[in-house]
Amino acid sequence: MSVSALSPIGALGSVSGLLQVASVFGLLLLLLKATQLYLHRQWLLKALQQFPSPPSHWLYGHSREHLNDNELQEALRRVKNFPRACPYWLWGNKAHLVIYDPDYMKVVLGRSDPKLTDVHKFLSPWIGYGLLLSDGQTWFQHRRMLTPAFHYDILKPYVNLMADSVKVMLDKWEQLVTQDSHLEIFGHVSLMTLDTVMKCAFSYQGSVQTDRNSHSYIQAVGNLNSLFVARLRSALYQNDIIYRLSPEGRLSRQACQLAHQHTDQVIRLRKAHLQKEGEMENLRKKRHLDFLDILLFARMENGSSLSDTDLRAEVDTFMFEGHDTTASGISWIFYALASHPEYQQRCREEIRSLLGDGTSITWDHLGQMPYTTMCIKEAMRLYPPVPAIIRELSKPITFPDGRSLPAGIIISLSIYALHHNPKVWPNPEVFDPSRFAPGSAQHSHAFLPFSGGSR
Question: What parts of the sequence cross the membrane (predicted)?
Answer without folding.
Answer: 12-32
